[in-house]
Design goal:
The protein is mainly alpha-helical. The chain contains 19 helices and 7 strands. The strands form 3 sheets. It has a 3-stranded antiparallel beta sheet. A two-stranded antiparallel ribbon has the order 1-2. The chain has a two-stranded antiparallel ribbon with strand order 6-7. Helix 6 (121-134) crosses helix 9 and helix 6 (121-134) packs antiparallel against helix 10 (206-215). The structure holds zinc ion (2 copies).
Length: 383
């Protein structure tokens, strides 16, 4: 049984989770009323009724995302919330890899949970996607993932050769399993994936896909019998799990990160570069915005270089550590702008200086990242 919080995708967006986490570390989400939570996060938390506490409708979102657990009569923040609340410490890749490895069916945030070893459909999903990519089929319909999970009896622990064999077979699911689909879209925020409501595309070369595959493993340990304590325990394993997870694909982008204008090539910066190099996102962006003009300097790269369609990079304007956002229909391309390689490098150089001057490792939110981009733009001189 693959249960998830239906219709709540926007609350599972990485930058939104960070806002909720920031609120949760210094306020009690269990007793908070509608107004303060909405003004702190900008999220709707409907119904907008002062007498209707958000906890009634959203406690499962908070607990499934592993931000809080109900301990005593308060929503106690987990270690995951404490880390997400800090800027530039956790990347979207760290978080969603952990989420996929820890998520069980059912999760401890669901009533049906019991303290036994449960299957891991999102770990299954990631491994299935990586295996499909390795056999040369990187565009994977969500119905096939759900069908393969339902029919194979796999639980997520199986090894690479088992997944490659599985990926070579045809699978389908006739029913649209909405909760499964939405949870898959949530992990579609990983920098090397892009998700629509019907398919997920993997943008990794084979070697990197195999490296990521090999570093994935179920988050286990001695279970608590109480589900709230179990949420707290699993979230407490975040740091050790992230340090064990060697995402080698981020090593291969080190040079590109420095090349792009970042001076150090931190994990946060690498996640940003992997996302910007995501070929599926790039294709989708230019398919719906067939521009050749740099958003930053206005040069028309098609007129300038008439033998090419364009000479432009994709720049992602959310905080550096954020993944792709998606809504019900798919990846949100509005978080992206097309800039020429020179401007792109200059923008990242500006970010490095701006963050250093403000003593920060990353932008607090999308608005701050957008403002820094606009500030860089206003300081640029025509020559
Ligand atoms: Zn430019
Ligand atoms: Zn960029």
């Amino acid at each position: 049984m693959w249960r998830f919080d239906q219709g709540r995708i926007e609350y599972f967006q990485f930058d939104e989770l960070r806002k909720i986490a920031k609120f949760a570390v210094s306020n009690d989400l269990k007793s908070v009323s509608h107004g303060p939570l909405v003004s702190a996060t900008g999220l709707p938390f409907l119904p907008a009724d002062a007498s209707y506490p958000p906890w009634r409708n959203y406690s499962r979102v908070f607990r499934t995302a592993m931000l809080v657990a109900k301990i005593g009569d308060v929503a106690a923040p987990t270690r995951v919330a404490e880390l997400l609340a800090q800027d530039g410490v956790v990347t979207s890749d760290d978080y969603y890899h952990f989420f996929a490895q820890a998520f069980t069916a059912p999760a401890p945030s669901f009533q049906e949970w019991e303290p036994t070893d449960q299957p891991r459909p999102l770990l299954f999903t990631l491994k299935f996607l990586l295996a499909r990519s390795v056999i040369g089929e990187p565009i994977v319909p969500i119905r096939e993932i759900v069908g393969a999970y339902d029919m194979s009896g796999f639980v997520g622990d199986e090894d690479q050769s088992a997944y490659v064999a599985l990926a070579k077979k045809q699978w389908s699911s006739s029913a649209d399993h909405r909760q499964a689909r939405e949870s898959i879209q949530v992990i579609g925020q990983l920098s090397y994936l892009s998700a629509s409501s019907t398919a997920v595309i993997v943008s990794l070369d084979d070697e990197d896909a195999l490296d990521v595959f090999e570093s994935l493993q179920a988050i286990r340990g001695q279970q608590e019998t109480n589900s709230e304590r179990e949420i707290m325990r699993v979230a407490g394993l975040f740091e050790s799990a992230v340090s064990d997870l060697e995402i080698d694909f981020s090593k291969t982008v080190y040079d590109e990160t420095v090349e792009a204008g970042f001076t150090e090539g931190t994990r946060v910066e690498k996640t940003h570069i992997v996302l910007e190099r995501n070929s599926a996102i790039r294709k989708a962006f230019f398919a719906s915005n067939p521009t050749a003009t740099c958003d930053f300097c206005d040069r028309d790269t098609q007129s300038e270089f008439p033998w090419s369609d364009r000479v432009l990079d994709i720049h992602h304007v959310l905080p550096l550590c954020s993944g792709t956002r998606s809504d019900k229909s798919g990846t949100i391309l509005g978080d992206l702008v097309a800039v020429c390689p020179t401007c792109h490098r200059a923008v990242h150089g500006f970010y490095t200086k701006w963050l250093k001057a403000n003593g920060m490792k990353d932008f607090a939110d999308a608005a701050e990242a957008r403002a820094a981009y606009d500030e860089a733009k206003s300081q640029r001189n025509d020559v």
